[in-house]
From TrEMBL:
Domain ABC transporter: 3-250
EC number: 3.6.3.17
Full protein name: Monosaccharide-transporting ATPase
Alphabetical UniProt keywords: ATP-binding, Hydrolase, Nucleotide-binding, Transport
SUPFAM superfamilies in the record: P-loop containing nucleoside triphosphate hydrolases
Species whose genome carries this gene: Desulfobacca acetoxidans (strain ATCC 700848 / DSM 11109 / ASRB2)
PANTHER family with a match to the protein in the record: AMINO ACID ABC TRANSPORTER ATP-BINDING PROTEIN, CONSERVED COMPONENT OF ABC TRANSPORTER FOR NATURAL AMINO ACIDS-RELATED
Amino acid sequence: MLLEINNLSKSFGGLQALNGVTFDVRMGVVQALIGPNGAGKTTCFNLISGILPPSSGSIRLDGRELSYLPPHRIARLGLARTFQNIQLFSGLSVLENVLVGQHLHLHGNLLATLLNLPAVRRQERRSADFARELLDFVGLADKEHWAADSLAYGDQRRLEIARAMALNPRLLLLDEPAAGMNPRETEDLMALIDNIQQRHITVLLIEHDMNLVMNISSRIVVFDQGRVIAQGPPKAIRQNPQVIEAYLGREEEDGDV
Ligand SMILES: Nc1ncnc2c1ncn2[C@@H]1O[C@H](COP(=O)(O)OP(=O)(O)OP(=O)(O)O)[C@@H](O)[C@H]1O
């Protein structure tokens, strides 16, 4: 197993956002976390990526315990993520945003950088080459000089993915990658996620677009009110009475899902 989540809980004051969550992610798959608003999906991502400490439970990447490690250490172990609310550096160019993503992995020391040593220049060239390759991969090669905030919304989401991939992750967490995308952009996103999987990067995504989820995931984990209520392949999930109940129950309340 690449990722093992065991009995994971998180409370915010009196609110139990996650309550004994257990699931695995196998190497090489595309897997989805779904569930009604407030079910705890983003909290789960925040715990896995080290942004928040868990209240209890364990998170293992390749057998190594991640809980309580800071985010940059977790990133170095091979985990990268995107955010539900896009978090790009708006003052920087598209290419610079990807280079910033890579920075965590650059090992040049400050003195070597100040002296502009050939090794440093070589490393910088390699970084720029890799960043351009990633921009090409996500379909933004012709926009490297654009300011990140001048990109269309769908392009900003793709840039966030390129930046996360600059960390060379083994596991990529995508938080609602299709949010705000039109059907055409969502189609392109599905193809992109497929290509990411071809590069042997495992993908765990939170998504409300059921068409996307059912199409690209080999396994789905369903959250409701901080608990896992079902997990399995798309076909079984679609027919699971508890899942239908969780969604239909919400629909009757606010007609939203
Ligand atoms: N930092 C925080 N402080 C206090 N409460 C929080 C915090 N983060 C999340 N919560 C609460 O925890 C619960 C789970 O939220 P979370 O964002 O994880 O749900 P979600 O399944 O990702 O929902 P959505 O699909 O709407 O993004 C919610 O009740 C939310 O208000």
